Amino acid sequence: xxxxxxxxxxxxxxxxxxxxxxxxxxxxxxxxxxxxxxxxxxxxxxxxxxxxxxxxxxxxxxxxxxxxxxxxxxxxxxxxxxxxxxxxxxxxxxxxxxxxxxxxxxxxxxxxxxxxxxxxxxxxxxxxxxxxxxxxxxxxxxxxxxxxxxxxxxxxxxxxxxxxxxxxxxxxxxxxxxxxxxxxxxxxxxxxxxxxxxxxxxxxxxxxxxxxxxxxxxxxxxxxxxxxxxxxxxxxxxxxxxxxxxxxxxxxxxxxxxxxxxxxxxxxx
Length: 269
Description:
The chain crosses the membrane at residues 57-80, 86-106, 113-130, 136-156, 177-196. By secondary structure, this protein is mainly alpha-helical.
């Protein structure tokens, strides 16, 4: 019957679609697990177990994820800046990155305050851009602040590293760790932005808010950063002579003649 064949064909299509979805989800889960393990390994290797450096790694990764999500949001924004405006914004950001890096290198404490204030301001501005879409000028300003923020983080990371740490290796791992977080945020924003245009900007605002909270827990440069707890040394073994009790002065120990070995030797003689 034609109706029965049509139902069988429809059922086959539904079953194949479900199998494809299950395979896609399972592979996505495997890929997410692999990315998570890779990111954690890079974080541990780069920070060397120093808690302050690991916090800056997390902060840098969150900010890069926010910035890439912001750039992806420009593709779906109604009032996105054009190519000329983006090029101008990147040029201004490059000019601002040089004095910002020098400021943090000369005054690390000021750099910590600069990071926190800039993250709060960028989070509020991104939230306004996602809510009201005021125009391309605000988005261009947000793009211009990307490069200075990255430079400030990398310079402060250099100041937080221990003296015996490999600087270029730590910086390279920090960029790798941040690239993984940015890749996940960017791809997710690109896919969801096709259905919800404001999603990438909301995600960027959320990441910047989290980064502002992480900036409050950064250690002071130059101070010993809290690291992993050192294992307690094992208790010293006592020697047999130390375990022997000493006889206090003024006391006499009574020893029966039956227990005196010198008496036995006298009898044998």
